[in-house]
Amino acid sequence: MVDPAVFVHLQAKIDEDAHVKEEIREILQSLERQGRLTQSILSKVHSTPSSELPATIEAAEKAIQDQVGTIARLSAVASDYPYYRYNGMWTRDVQNATFAIVLCGWLGGFNSADPQEPGRLLTIEEVGEVMKVPVNLKDRDDFHLTIEEYLHALINLIEELARLAVNSVTLGDYQRPLLISRFVKDLHAGFQILNLKNDSLRRRSDSIKYNVGVADERIHIETEGVIHR
Question: Are 178 and 120 in contact (CB under 8 A)?
Fold first, then answer.
């Protein structure tokens, strides 16, 4: 005879799982809203001269701190359960937040040593410090920033900087595109060192060389066109 208590227990587990997912979903909705605001602020860099960027960077840092507060709420809930049980729900939003941080850092944000100095790559540890979460945890099963999430954000950064390079020329800024060109080539060289096991990352990293080449070509064409005018 089958004891009905077995199924009562299973239903309790199902209800608990549904409750946790709903709680995480509500937190992620807030994080998505905050992320859209951060991206709208950062998108202004495409039409803002370098000399006027400090105000945009300051606004982006403030918006990112709001995201950090929401990530803390997510961490508090998620860390009560095995990491990989629910991480598929939030990994894209964490990637987007990481991208915002590394872009803001490249523009000169999150740099107390040399404020507003562009061209710096924030390490995964520095991103973790901004987010106030551990990175690449192996010794315990808590919420953290993964290497894969960080690398996806760097690929997003390359794509965004390629756009910024061309738009900077339009603004009459010919130094920023050269800085971008050197930076993305260095990132491309770094990715070539990696032996990527993640299929999504490997596919996306294959596009880096193409994006770097396209950006380089467009920078050259735009710059030459301006010089000859």
Answer: no
Cβ-proximal residues to 41 (8 Å cutoff; 6+ apart), any chain: 56, 59, 60, 63
Would you place residue 91 in the very low, low, confident or very high pLDDT band (cuts 50, 70, 90)?
very high
CA 21/CA 10 separation, integer angstroms: 17
The b-or-e profile of 133-148 (16+ CB within 10 A means b, else e) is: bebeeeeeeebbbbeb
Q: Which two tokens stand for residue 206?
A: 């294959």
Q: Is the dihedral of CA 184, 187, 189, 191 positive or negative?
A: negative
Structure tokens at 73: 């709420």
Residue 135 pairs in a beta bridge with: 145
- The 10s digit of each residue's pLDDT in 102-138 is 999 999 999 876 666 899 999 999 999 999 999 999 8
